[in-house]
Amino acid sequence: MLTVNGKSYELSVSPWRTLLEVIREDLGLTGTKEGCHLGECGACTVIMDGKTVNSCLVLATEADGKQVTTIEGLADGDKLHPVQQAFVDHGGLQCGFCTPGMIMSAKVLLDEKPDPSKEEIKRAIAGNMCRCTGYTKIIESIKAAAGNVEGK
Amino acid sequence: MAEFSVIGERLPRVDAREKVTGKAKYAADYSFPKPDMLWCKLSRSPYPHARILNIDTSAAERLSGVKAVVTGKDFGGWTWGWMPATRDEPPLAVDKVRYMAEAVAGVAAIDEDTAEEACELIKVDYEELPSVFDPEKAMKDGAPKVHDYVKNNISVEYHWNFGDADKAFAESYIVREDRFKTSRATHGYLEPPAILAYYDPTGYITVWAAKQSPYFHYRHLSACFKLPLSKIRVIQPFIGGGFGGTKNDSLAGDFCAVLLSKLTGRPVKYVESMEEELMTSRRRHSMIVYSKMGAKKDGALTAIHHRVIADGGGYTAVGPLSIYLAGFATTLPYKLPNFKYDAYRVFTNNPIGAAMRGHGITHTRFAAEIQMEMIAEELGIDPVEMRMRNAIDNPKPGTVYETINKVTLKTCGIKEAIRKVAETPIWRDRDRTPVKEGDISWGVGLSGTSYLGGARQMGHQSCAAIVRICEDGTVNLITGATDCGQGSDTVLCMIAAEELGIELKDIDIKRVDTAYTPVDPGSYGSRVTILAGQATQKAAREAKKQLLEAAAKTWQVAPEDIEIRHRKVFVVSDPEKSMPFGKLARIACYSGTGAVILGTGYSSYGVEPLDLTNGIGNGGTSYSFTAQLAKVGVDIETGKITVTNFTIASDCGRLLSPITAEGQIEGGAIQGLGQTLYEDFVMDKGKTLNPSFLDYKMPLSMDVPDIELIDVVTDDPDGPFGAKEASEGSIVSTPPAVVSAIHNATGIWFKELPITPEKVVKALREKAPELVGNGNSP
Question: pTM (2 decimals)?
Answer without folding.
Answer: 0.97
